[in-house]
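Late entry, evening session. Most of the bench is empty. Finally got around to the prediction I had been postponing all week. Sequence below, unchanged from the version circulated by S.P.
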Amino acid sequence: MDFDISRLLEQWEYRPGQVVVRRFKGKDGREKIQLRVDLGLLQMNAEGRPDGKRPFGYVSLFEYYQARLYKHLAGHSGSAEGFQLTAEDCSKLQLEALQYHQRYFCLLQLDDYAGVIRDAERNLAVFDFVRKHVASEDLAWSLRQFEPQLLMVLTRAQAAQALDGDDYSQAIRQVEEGLERIRSFHRENANSEAAENSGEVLSLAEWLEEIRARRPLSQRERLERALHDAVTCEDYERAAQVRDQLRNLESAE
């Protein structure tokens, strides 16, 4: 067996500062994703657990721990009291979440917004699961500290998906809601500075302004702008015509 991948790497240049990624079908018939990194590449499955493993026969460790919880609930009259994740459990879930984290960044680069949303929401569910079932806030924080970055990626995917359908209003709502979720996270964790100036907030706020600037004007907005321009140029005949059009539009509404 030839273990040397030098020729493969020579044919696929690494570009610092960029997410260099590709998607293809593997010999097993399943779609794969490869991410070019400085000293080689990472390969993952496009669906299911990224490394293709089935821990304890489950799709992922998260599903395994969920099954343990459901078994506990069934044996304790629906009460979760007594069910607790250990530090080792949290460590394992964090390592697994990192696999999904790497994949949704690749999927975002590939414009697979549905895949990004699937993996990001999955990791959010993991963070919430850990928060509810650990004894220590520090253990929960070991995962939840990545939540702002995750919410930024999720928001970008949701808004980009809306923009693909030319739904600018929905895209703007998605970014506004994403910003509020990130700000709320920081406020809840007593970090008011990050709520306004974190990298995630600044990045999404800048993108929001870009989307608003690109959004096509509605008929009302076009008429209002035309009216403003006519008045500014002292073209009162044109201004009167535009006012009539605005009144007709209001009547029709």
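Two things to note before I forget:
The chain has a mean pLDDT of 92.
Residues 220-252 form one domain.
Will write this up properly tomorrow.
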